[in-house]
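[Meeting: bench + compute handoff]

Bench side (C.D.) handed over the final construct sequence. Compute side (W.E.) agreed to return the predicted structure before the next meeting so the bench team could plan truncations. Sequence as handed over:
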Amino acid sequence: MAHANPAGEGSNEGLWRFRALLVAVFVFPLLTFTAVAWVDRAGVLAQAEREAAEVAEISAQNALNVLQTHELVASVVSEHIAGMSWADIGSSAAVHEYLARVDDAYPQMKGIWLVDRFGVIRNSSRLFPIDPVSVADRDYFVALRDHDSGIFIGELVLNRVFGEPNFNIARRRTSANGEFDGLVVVTAVQSHLAKFWQAVSPAPGNVTALVRADGMILARQPEIRPEAARLPPNSLVLRATRSGVERGMFRATSPVDGVERFYALRRIDGYDEYIVHGVAVATALARWYADLRLLGSVFAIAGVALTFTAALALRQAQRERVATARWRSAAQLADDELQRRTAVEAQLRQSQKLEALGQMAGSIAHDFGNLLTVVIGNLDRLKARLTDPEFMRPLRSASDAAERGAQAIRALLAFARRQPLRQETCDLNVTLQSMRPLLQQGLGARCQLVLDLAAETWPVTVDVNQLEMAMLNLTVNGRDAMPKGGTLRIATVNTRLNGDPPGLDGEFVRLSVADSGTGMPPDIAARVFEPFFTTKPAGKGTGLGLSQVYGFATQCGGTATLDSIVDHGTTISLYLPRARSDASSDTVAGGGGADTGNGPRGTAAVKEG
């Protein structure tokens, strides 16, 4: 019985470690989830600020076009009626017809009005003859009557003819002796601008407004009545406009509807008017809650799996403890031998647990990574094809959430030390055609993409994802080699090799990418496939771009070659072996990241170096 206590103490210590592990596999995913959720929340709010800034820029450009168009029409009409008396203007059907034609040409206008020096409308594009209607009390009439400022943008008012909220762009008319002689007024309706803003930013709670520097709201989405179209004195927007800032970003609660938003302020070039766009904080947090549900499901599955594994290990350890205690009691082992075996068993169990956890984490991460790859790929293709702003916003949100999930998966894969690379048999022509939108996007608008694909090209066995990264790498390098534009030609052809390139014999498909850049000298061309070699300045590339392309080709059983002539361009050829008739997909360990933004090809890279 002298050995019973030491045996029991060693076993109890082992069980305590298992229980601690059981707690850890529950607490660790919870803590990780909390940290990821907090980082994701900050990212979602930052994205909301970026969205506010982007929409404000778009809306400011649209408002600039509207104001410039109305001002130009006022100037053209003023020149048309120059020299005419108000009696002639008021009685002229020809003037009315001219105004109607101009008005019909611009759907953003609601009317053109000719106002005499007493503030009475004498002719218009909408009504003829027109009953006397006075606008002498309007702010634009008072301002231009007392001061020759050329153009004045009036406040939001209720149109006295149509009863619809609008604001007016007025131009002063001057008599031959330089005195005030009435106005040319062009009407802009709130609903036209509001419709555009709604299409650009349809998310609930978002708001866009055109504001004068004095705090008068000229137009707003959601639309606003004229009696409520003035910012209160304590408004942050009013403080900013009065101080003359060009642009700004702040978070505040709206004094109009009480909603908290991220606001972006942009001054319209050449005018004292501003665009203000606000993204509701609640809308941004709703995206975060959606992310939480996705991340929560991933971490919950991983946590349950790890907890179940640890529980099984604990149960097995308890059984081993009972069996070990019986065996030790029967064998009457010496104290030193018992302690040594207990320590060895504890180390073995710890090693087995860590290996099991690593395998499980890697397996789960691999499966989720494959799913997210499909999701991200399809979202990217949708974003490239869809132009409707109503769908682009949720597509970007879904893509961002999937990318954040992919980052968590990559962290798990790094922990498990698994980087799977899957090869499959594919038709290069079909694959390249499907990649064409992605390659054209990487090439940019200044360069032309030409696919010269030979008929009946043999199938090859490659990792399609790695092929896509390699082609994107070569496309971007080709673009950099043609800073003034040019042609990038991608060609496929069947070829039978007999030791040239060295070491290759048999049937291959040659995939060549040729640019029309200015090429590179022989000393640079000889080193382009070396890892970490780049002609770009520090911070602009890692030098792994073309080495990744070379590694991809050699891993597939082929190779990559480069031909470059100064002032005539560069051609990179990938030799990929023809797939066996019984070839099937298989997975090999390894792989590496693509470097699509570097690699010394063509004039652009050489100049940087």
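W.E. noted at the follow-up: Residues 4-54+285-420 form one domain. C.D. will use this when planning the next construct.
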